[in-house]
């Protein structure tokens, strides 16, 4: 899979890509230090790539692995979504993918319409669910999932990077937060952890 890179006049894109990683790690450190003290996750009301309104309840009975990003992300988001789909594929080898749903939620709702999100997620997998919504809906959802995001300054072409937390969240079939996986967590370890949770889960 090839990905186009967006170049800014002054190198702002590269700067903000690096800043996104740093901020993501700092956010995860805060989450780790506060784990057990703050609630992570909860219901959302967004629209999928077909424009249909969906809520967390629509995924009841499924294990959900969710990643927040944006469709014009030059490198980090494609890498993480490829990892997410690799998790899906490896679970399939063990027959554990039927009750598993990978979800991408944009943090750039102004540009990422259902049509844009639909085209984007199809490049990764037909099983990947893409969600977007109004700026207010995304803000509420990101807050519930402790996702930091901030739009950077536009370049000479009006393009911009969105700095955001780089993390995947695992939710159980009840829609409850189970654990998170950072940017460099090995895929095989994520799969092992998910399968362990599936085995121990009592609905």
From TrEMBL:
Gene Ontology molecular-function annotations: metal ion binding
Xref: InterPro entries: SCO1/SenC (IPR003782), Thioredoxin-like_sf (IPR036249), Thioredoxin_domain (IPR013766)
Domain of life: Eukaryota
Domain Thioredoxin: 35-200
A Pfam short name: SCO1-SenC
Keywords carried by this UniProt record: Copper, Disulfide bond, Metal-binding
Cysteines engaged in disulfide bonds, as pairs: 73-77
Positions contributing to Cu cation binding: 73, 77, 164
The keyword rRNA processing appears for this protein: no
GO terms of biological process kind: mitochondrial respiratory chain complex IV assembly
GO cellular component, one term: mitochondrion
Record's keyword annotation contains Cell inner membrane: no
Stated family: Belongs to the SCO1/2 family.
Protein's UniProt name: Thioredoxin domain-containing protein
